[in-house]
Structures are given as C-alpha cells and as structure tokens.
Design a protein that fits this description.
CATH architecture of the largest domain: 2-Layer Sandwich
CATH topology of the largest domain: D-amino Acid Aminotransferase, Chain A, domain 1
Number of strands: 22
Strand order of the largest sheet: 13-12-9-10-11-14-21-19
CATH superfamily of the largest domain: ATP-grasp fold, B domain
Radius of gyration: 21 Å
Oligomer: single chain
Length: 444
C-alpha cells in the first residue's frame, strides 16, 4: 500500500480523497494555487505545497510543478481526481517515468478511450452496441456528405478530442451540413489543438445512462449498476440518480454486461464509467468511456455501500477486485450546487460566502469544501457542493432532498439551490419522465 498520496486537484474532490486516505492510514499532500490558500483541502491534508498562481494553466495543469511537489514530499502516488489532468495521457506517462503511481488509467488506455473515434471502433469490435456513424475520422467534407446521406438525418458531428460540448454540432438537414462542419472543426482546433471529426446518427430524446465499472491489474472487471445523468444543460450534468427510473431488470443486466465487455476489451484498470445513450424503446448505444472517478460517484456509493475512492487506491496498489457486480438496494439522488445565478442564464457568481449552513440528518450527505467567509475564486469550475440523499424509495429520496435543500443556507452569492428546489417539485421529474431534452422546456 502507498505511504503518501499527493492529490493533484482542488475543492470538494480533493477533500473527498483526503478523507478516504486518512481512514486507510495513508499520508496526504495537497497542492494548491495562490487563490486556494484558504481552501479546506489545504487545511486537512498532512502537507500542502503551493504550485503556482491562480490560473489553472499555471498551477493545477502545470505537470512539472505537480511532479516537483510529489518529489519534495516523497509522495509515492498521485490521485488526479476529476477534471484538470485526470484524463491526460501525458501526465499519466510522466508519473510513470518518475516512478510515481498514477491512480487511474494507463497512458495507453487514456489515449485509446480519449480519442472518441478510436474508442467507438474498439467497442464495436468488443460487441458493445454503438450508434450508427462514420468508421473512424472523416477525412474531408465530401466524405462527410456521403456518410450523412447513408445514415440519414438528423446527424451529430463530434470532435474526436472533444469534451464539455465543444466541437459538437447537431445537423437536421443537408443544407446546414457544410456550415456545421466548418464551425465544429474551427472550434475543436481552437479548444483542443485537434480538428479531427467523426459522425453519429442523432438519437432523439435519449436518456443519458452510465454504468460504473471497476477493473484490476489482472484484467478482471465488474460493474456497480447505473446512474441516470439525463438532467443536464449544455451537456453539463445538473442532477443524477440511481437507480434510473427508466431502468428495467433486463436492461440493467444487458447494460452491465456490455460495460464489462467494454472494460475487458481494453483491460481497464481503476474506476471509470461507460456512458450510453438509451432511446425511448430502451435500445442502448455506447457513447464514450470516462477513465476517472466521476463527480456523481457518491450516489453509487450510497446505494451499494462501497467506497469507490478506497477501491480505486487498492486497485492502483495491485490488490485484486472480487469480481462481484453490485446492484442498488436503495435510491439516491445528487444535486450539484454551483455558484451560479439560475435566473440569469446560470451566470457564474464568485465572491464571498457571508453565511453558510449545511443540512444534515439521516440519509443526507454533503460533499463540499466551502464555509462561511470563504471567498469563491473566479478561476475554476463553479461547483461548490454536492447534496446527496438516500432512502428506501425514490419518492422518499426526493422528499429528503426537498427538506435538505430547504435547510441549505448559502448567502453572499447566487447558487443553484433555488433551481434544484424547483426541479424536485417538477411533475415530470417526480414521475421519472425526463430525457436529455428536459431543460429545453423546464421553466426556472
């Protein structure tokens, strides 16, 4: 087992990792930018090292500074959390070349799954259902036109190096294809330095359902069932739950088996998710694989009593998994609380928190790094807390979430708490009748 783990991240996920490390008797090192000097992950780690100025490009994304911090503190492993360098193959490679264990996927695996066209091809060979579309990257616009005509409109153009909705264009007809092709390539080149494009048939009004997986160093894999992540805005998730209200026992079995096939096809090591789009007829299609811990991992932990960070660390240390699949025994919901103004197009709202009170009680979990008089910096992702409720039934979990949100006091800034309060009262949501298009008609 590792003696000391450096957490190459910030905020609630850094604090979440520190907690598990402490329980396992592992020393921790926090890294922080000058903007995060007062963050709780800095306070609760055994050691803390400043790695640069506020901008993430000069601190949390600066590989040389993070490796230097690991070396001067004698850390023998690095946990990247999510975001920043969590799915950076080069960072994984640099850790390896410096004899520091990267708690996550190998450089090869990250590259293979990070390139969405290559990932789709790999999944197809493994027998995992994929969305009809181009075979690999599209070399030119003429080929793009030909494929679109063959699979039929609507189609979705996607950047192979994309993420967060960048480099994606929905095209309803041939007359809009060329403009979409040019703008998607330009955006992708600017955002990722790669303008490679592929195409998929657009699945109308799907559910976004992901399967949590874990694999060990011997190529064995297991799943921990699904999470429904369909409540999202501009491809950013807002709330998640497990089990999915759309799921059947048969579909859970089929998707679980497909996710294990996906993991075994690449000999996946660590925790990750296999993301699927599920149409209204419950046909499911591979979308992508995330080679990291997910923001929404707590809902899975709560329904199967399984510490995903702990198991991630154990796998990285060479400990085998049991190979057992896990199925939800309870119902859990997570609401992401962002420092944003939902009444003004979710505009970011950094600033000083003047008053803070976190909800509590049975079945309520809060993952956060903020507190009263904490200054939220404007440089990073706006998520400041996650509220997770767990109960015997979905109805009870929603009722518990309503109560928890009513108790949650954050003053001095705007937050998405009022949005989530309205979401919990929404009739369609309460019925479990929602798709990825839910936010198009939701009034807040």
């Amino acid at each position: 087992m590792f003696n000391k783990i450096l957490i190459a991240n910030r905020g609630e996920i850094a604090l979440r990792i520190i907690r598990t490390c402490k329980e396992m008797g592992i020393k921790t090192v926090a890294v922080y930018s000058k903007a995060d000097v007062d963050s709780l992950h800095v306070r609760f780690a055994d050691e803390a090292v400043c790695i640069g100025p506020p901008n993430s490009t000069d601190s949390y994304l600066k590989i040389a500074n993070i490796i230097a911090a690991a070396e001067i503190t004698n850390a023998d492993a690095i946990h990247p959390g999510y975001g920043f360098l969590a799915e950076n193959a080069n960072f994984s490679e640099v850790c390896k070349s410096n004899n520091i264990k990267f708690i996550g996927a190998s450089p090869k695996m990250i590259s293979k799954m990070g390139d969405k066209a290559a990932a789709k091809s790999t999944m197809k060979k493994a027998g995992v259902p994929t969305i009809p579309g181009s075979e690999g990257l599209i070399p030119n616009f003429k080929t793009c036109e030909k494929i679109a005509k063959e699979i039929g409109y609507p189609i979705m153009l996607k950047a192979t190096a994309g993420g967060g909705g960048k480099g994606m264009r929905l095209v309803w007809g041939a007359e809009n294809l060329e403009a979409a092709w040019n703008s998607a390539k330009t955006e992708s080149k600017a955002a990722f330095g790669n303008d490679g494009m592929y195409m998929e048939k657009f699945i109308e009004d799907p559910r976004h359902i992901e399967i949590q997986i874990i694999g060990d160093q011997k190529g064995r894999a297991a799943h921990l069932s699904e999470r429904d992540c369909s409540i999202q805005r501009r491809h950013q998730k807002l709330a998640e739950e497990t089990p999915s209200p759309f799921m059947t026992k048969k579909l859970r079995h089929e998707m679980g088996e497909a996710a294990i096939k996906a993991a075994q096809a690449v000999k996946y090591e660590g925790v990750g998710t296999v993301e699927f789009l599920v149409d209204k007829h419950r046909n499911f299609y591979f979308m992508e694989m995330n080679t990291r811990i997910q923001v929404e991992h707590p809902v899975t932990e709560e329904v199967v009593d399984y510490d995903l960070i702990k198991e991630q660390i154990k796998v990285a240390a060479g400990i085998d998994i049991s190979g057992k699949n896990y199925f939800p025994q309870l119902h859990a919901i997570e609401c992401r609380i962002n420092a944003e103004d939902p009444e003004n197009d979710f505009r970011p709202s950094p600033g000083m928190i003047t008053n803070f009170h976190a909800p509590g009680g049975h079945g309520v979990r809060i993952d956060t790094h903020v507190y009263a008089n904490y200054l939220i910096p404007p440089f990073y992702d706006s998520m400041i807390a996650k509220v997770i409720t767990v109960a015997q039934t979905r109805e009870e979990a929603i009722g518990k979430m309503e109560r928890a949100l009513d108790e949650f006091i954050i003053e001095g800034i705007k937050t998405t708490i009022p949005f989530h309060q309205k979401l919990m009262k929404n009739e369609a949501f309460r019925k479990g009748d929602y798709t990825t298009k839910f936010m198009d008609t939701f009034e807040y």
